[in-house]
Amino acid sequence: MIPIDLIQSTAENLMDKAAIEIPDDYLSGLEAAAHVEDGDLSAFVLQAMLENYKAAKEDRRAMCGDTGCPRWYVKMSNEAQVQGGPVALETALRRATAAATNGVPLRPNRVHPLWRTDHDNNVGIAAPEIEYGFEPAPGGEWIDLTTVHKGGLFGTDYRMLFPSDGIEGIKRFYLDSLVAFGKRGLSCQPAIIGIGLGGSKDACMVLGKRAACLRTVGDRNPDPKIAALEMEFKELGNSIGMGAMGFVGKSMVIDCHIEVGYCHTGGMQMSVHAFCLSSRRACARIWADGRVEHRTDPAWFTPYQRRETVEWPTALAAE
């Protein structure tokens, strides 16, 4: 059984890491963009951000003044048992969020939509969001905690496309979204772009956000045709003449990730999400024996998460 105190202390530590330490994969992608950027203002912004990330880590301060809206992704092995059960788990994550808001500190961004009630701790009705996944792999009791500090205002769009729109329709909406993000200041570029295709509207939005936040720079979809689209869309996004923070340049997209879900025969839902210039995530696996293994790759999109079959073959589950 996984101790609840260990879950909470690990969650608090992850909140600190996500706010302060830029993941290595994104840092490498940003450095590569800075190396080729020739737009004066875009190049200046990229260099300033790289210096800011270094200073934030040295001073143990949040890398960006707007720390977004903290959220949690929880994945559990099929054998995992949490002390106190799921209610205790969610309580631990809410406590960790409140503690980090005052401790890191994080900006208390969460308010009631109508009354603007603010508890100054990023906790409230349906906040923070907690999403779940499960894995059939045997081998012990473990739980993965991933925190993402995602901007909660802009940098997201949705459109109901139709099968006849095809790949060209997907490209048009993708470019429309990036241009709007840049011209109207709706996201902080360069960013990891996540695209969700298919599902119902809510599932499409979830797929796109997870594609942006839970996959690392350089990771490719296992479907070779989708992987090719990801590479094409990265190049396409960097060819529209916009760079960092919407200035003239060629560093709009650090990487592009696409995730799909089966949808209604008459539609082709699409969502676009920008995980901003301060791509903030941290992950750890907690074992029942007390081990805690930190990493920056959430490893969320396993074969099981992308399964198409009714049953999950026993042979695959044993691997």
TrEMBL record:
Residues 10-283 form the Fe-S hydro-lyase tartrate dehydratase alpha-type catalytic domain. Keywords: 4Fe-4S, Iron, Iron-sulfur, Lyase, Metal-binding. InterPro entries: Class-I_Fumarase/Tartrate_DH, Fe-S_hydro-lyase_TtdA-typ_cat. Belongs to the class-I fumarase family. This is Fumarate hydratase. It comes from Paralimibaculum aggregatum.
